[in-house]
């Protein structure tokens, strides 16, 4: 039952009362004639004036009772009926005291008022909403290939194009040996980086598996020093085979893949799509995954290594009006359901920016890593990144480069400076310079606390005992290194150093006793 019908039922019910049965006549009520506000009795012989209504309609008086009409009709005085000596016009009845309102009725009235207001607002909004534009075209063009029609978006960037502060063509200036050390992957040393292939996909989800479809495969490669961006778009599900065959041809003409998290996501997904579509899987190429390089180099920044983070903080490029990656699958599904094809333009732009970022980031990281060849690393570098490069070079076995970066990173403060001094000490010790190693450890102790300090004291104890042959210094630092080693190892170290000191002291005492007294004593 709607609100209006409920209100109609409750309006006629007083507190504690019951609604009158439908069709029953209201009992006649004799008016109380008043003269100047004082009750007056009707003259004898005056017929009773009754007012009968049935279901809200005036009813005829009972037979035998003369009908007396209202002496006023439409506001004009009327003459009294013939035969009546006098008819005293009754005064208006006194207003009845207001009945207490039913709270249910008031609640329903408020609900109806709110509902009416909302309906009016909705109607106003609908009237103000402009008509939706007709769906626009897809931002891709069909191309005929030997494998069928594929839908492509393509552009060519000039050799001087920059992405942020880095030139995109800087990726062509990388050395295979440096790339191999940066990636900790020796197979990349002999790659021809003039023919590398940048790859990035946009998919229907991030879960992976057979239900995830790459609807946009972004490719980029160099032609001379110009970068060609070639994006393959899946216009309809089930039409992947031509797109995959074009991808296989491009991979066959390339020397390696460059991706960001492509080893874990993009390439395994594409390999699965080759199998499901019964297209021959291309031979796997050497794979440079810049995510792994970025994690090792920029880990001390403490802000994560997402691709857009690298873009903003390393290359100084901030995207404007970029589509959120989490919304991309939904935009594609809306298109499949007959939505606006032009709404996918931001998705293609997002993918193209990712490809440009791959080229610019590769060139920038190798350029900065190359700076470790000299003894003096540029002072303008971020100490956090210098420490990251030092760690990568150390793991790659390039100790000279690692030492140069570590020395430069010691300009950092706090934990960065402490770790840089600790790494520089280790490298100095490996180079046969124990005194320099000890000095770095003492500098690191200025910022260390807790277990970190105990670890540095342990390194100093080893250095003083075995390299500098300073047992007193070794014992002093060993006593402060309890938190850095197991209790039994710590106790064994103390006993060994103390025993060596005792033997030296005893030998020295015996040596003094064995010496002959000086003449004249």
UniProtKB/TrEMBL annotation:
InterPro entries: RNaseH-like_sf, RNaseH_sf, YprB_RNase_H-like_dom
Chain segments carrying region Disordered: 1-148
Biased composition (Low complexity): 124-135
Annotated ranges, domain YprB ribonuclease H-like: 197-364
Ranges of biased composition (kind: Basic and acidic residues): 99-117
SUPFAM superfamilies per record: Ribonuclease H-like
A Pfam family this chain is assigned to: RNase_H_2
Name the record gives this protein: Ribonuclease H-like domain-containing protein
Taxonomic lineage of the native organism: Bacteria, Pseudomonadati, Myxococcota, Myxococcia, Myxococcales
């Amino acid at each position: 039952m709607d609100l209006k019908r409920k209100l109609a039922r409750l309006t006629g019910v007083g507190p504690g009362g019951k609604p009158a049965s439908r069709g029953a006549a209201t009992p006649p009520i004799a008016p109380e004639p008043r003269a100047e506000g004082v009750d007056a009795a009707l003259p004898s012989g005056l017929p009773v004036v009754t007012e009968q209504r049935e279901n809200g309609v005036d009813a005829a008086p009972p037979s035998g009772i003369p009908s007396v009409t209202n002496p006023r009709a439409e506001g004009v005085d009327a003459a009294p009926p013939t035969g009546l000596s006098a008819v005293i016009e009754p005064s208006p009845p006194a207003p009845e005291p207001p009945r207490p309102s039913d709270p249910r009725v008031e609640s329903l009235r408020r609900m109806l008022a709110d509902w009416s207001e909302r309906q009016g607002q909705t109607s106003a909004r609908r009237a103000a909403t402009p008509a939706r534009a007709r769906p626009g075209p897809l931002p891709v063009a069909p191309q005929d290939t030997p494998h069928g029609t594929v839908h492509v978006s393509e552009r060519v960037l000039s050799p001087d194009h920059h992405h942020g502060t880095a030139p995109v063509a800087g990726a062509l200036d990388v050395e295979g040996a440096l790339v191999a050390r940066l990636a900790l992957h020796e197979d990349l040393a002999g790659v021809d980086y003039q023919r590398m292939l940048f790859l990035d996909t946009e998919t229907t989800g991030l879960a992976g598996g057979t239900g995830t479809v790459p609807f946009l495969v972004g490719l980029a490669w160099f032609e001379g020093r110009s970068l060609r961006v070639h994006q393959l778009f899946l216009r309809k599900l089930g039409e992947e085979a031509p797109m995959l065959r074009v991808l296989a041809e491009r991979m066959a003409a390339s020397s390696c893949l460059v991706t960001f998290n492509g080893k874990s996501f993009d390439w395994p997904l594409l390999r699965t799509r080759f199998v499901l579509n019964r297209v021959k899987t291309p031979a796997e190429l050497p794979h440079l995954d810049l995510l792994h390089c970025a994690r090792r180099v920029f880990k001390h920044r403490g802000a994560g290594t997402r691709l857009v983070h690298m873009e903003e903080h390393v290359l100084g490029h901030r995207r404007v009006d970029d589509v959120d990656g989490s919304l991309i699958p939904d935009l594609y599904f809306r298109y499949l359901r007959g939505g606006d094809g032009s709404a996918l333009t931001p998705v293609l732009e997002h993918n193209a920016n990712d490809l440009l970022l791959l080229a610019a980031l590769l060139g920038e990281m190798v350029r900065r890593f190359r700076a470790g060849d000299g003894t003096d690393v540029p002072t303008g570098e971020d100490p956090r990144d210098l420490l990251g490069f030092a760690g990568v070079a150390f793991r790659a076995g390039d100790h000279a480069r690692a030492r140069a970066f570590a020395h430069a990173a010691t300009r950092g403060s706090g934990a960065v400076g402490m770790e840089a001094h600790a790494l520089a000490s280790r490298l100095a010790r490996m180079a046969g310079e124990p005194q320099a190693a000890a000095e770095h450890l003492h500098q690191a102790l200025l910022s260390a606390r807790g277990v970190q300090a105990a670890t540095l004291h342990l390194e100093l104890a080893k250095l003083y005992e075995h390299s500098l042959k300073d047992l007193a210094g070794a014992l002093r630092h060993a006593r402060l290194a309890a938190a850095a080693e197991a209790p039994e190892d710590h106790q064994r170290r103390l006993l060994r150093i103390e025993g060596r000191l005792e033997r030296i002291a005893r030998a020295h005492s015996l040596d003094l006793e064995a010496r002959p007294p000086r003449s004249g004593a």
